[in-house]
Write a structure and sequence with these properties.
elongated, 37% helix, 8 strands, Rossmann fold, 316 residues, four-stranded parallel sheet, alpha/beta
């Protein structure tokens, strides 16, 4: 490791000011945890600075090697296509700079513990007389058109279900994949549990997280005999910051393996056979740098045609 090594934290971006603020706070925490590196952050779309701006800043400050870390939970389209496209293009234009692409946060014991603690905090604020055996856990993912990424949400749910001893667990998604949260809750209430905990497995707040909580409130109003508890998303949990730091260290030591066994771009996955071998290109030129929902915001709906993987609120 040389003093010319830099770290670029790559966020998705959001039209939501609060989500951008939380991402920037996380980037600040990481800068403090990585004092030996020059750290920048930027966004793929919907917010500024864009990733290219951050990379140019690191270049101007003399970076000889840049570790690009996806600020996303799972590897769907953004981690598999859009971010590598950004990194590869910059590297091709700057052959004197070594570009290293770190892996996504993925399923990690530290993140499972962080999720457990978020759920436990929500339980402490709930009625004391409902046991976990009388509780259904609803884990909510962003939803993508990549079945490998979607299946990770199910694995998270299963590990929390067994590890924490809930009576049941279900999975739903905020968009693109099914069931959506409202449909998932409509089925969950039929199972007879006294409490339903709704846990968004997201990094940051934003439009989608608020939509999830709104759906939970609607289900609660329609089912007054069931207690609905809204757990917090991960945000700046210390164990999340630990995981980011670990991804940087993995990238620098060469222990940086992504799980590609069920990637639809490498294998013929049922229902996505035509995606195997698709070119690795970015899809975000049309919204790169577009602003948030603050003054002068550009109202650009996010569920447009190319179905974003684990979207702008941090779940990819």
């Amino acid at each position: 490791m040389t003093e010319k090594t830099a770290v670029m934290i790559c966020g998705h971006g959001s039209r939501d000011d609060a989500a951008i603020e939380e991402f920037n706070q996380l980037a600040g925490h990481l800068s403090k945890r990585l004092p030996d590196f020059d750290v920048e952050s930027g966004f793929l779309e919907f917010a500024t600075p864009v990733i290219r701006t951050g990379l140019d800043k690191l270049k101007d400050r003399g970076a000889e090697r840049i570790v690009c870390v996806p600020g996303m939970l799972f590897a769907a389209g953004h981690v598999k296509n859009d971010l590598p496209s950004e990194v590869n293009n910059f590297g091709a234009e700057n052959p004197d700079i070594e570009m290293i692409f770190a892996r996504e946060l993925a399923i990690d014991l530290k993140l499972l513990e962080a999720a457990k603690q978020r759920i436990e905090a929500a339980e402490r604020d709930a009625a004391p007389d409902v046991s976990r055996q009388d509780t259904l856990l609803m884990v909510v993912g962003r939803g993508t058109n990549d079945p490998d990424a979607n299946s990770n949400v199910s694995k998270i749910a299963r590990m929390l279900w067994e590890g924490m001893g809930f009576g049941w667990a279900e999975v739903s998604y905020s968009g693109v994949a099914s069931p959506l949260v409202d449909a998932g809750l409509a089925q969950a209430v039929k199972l007879g549990y006294r409490r339903i905990i709704v846990f968004p497995y997201f990094l940051f707040t934003g439009i989608l997280v608020r939509r999830i909580y709104d759906w939970a409130d609607e289900a609660a109003a329609e089912n007054p005999s069931i207690e609905f508890v809204k757990a917090s998303y991960l945000n700046d949990h210390e164990l999340l910051i630990d995981t980011f730091v670990e991804r940087v260290n993995e990238a620098l030591t060469g222990d940086n393996n992504m799980n590609c066994q069920l990637c639809k771009y490498r294998e013929q996955i049922i229902g996505y056979e035509g995606d195997k071998g698709a070119p690795q290109v970015g899809h975000h030129h049309h919204v790169r740098g577009v602003g948030t929902d603050g003054p002068g915001a550009h109202d650009h709906a996010h569920d447009h045609g190319h179905h974003h993987g684990d979207g702008h609120d941090g779940a990819e």
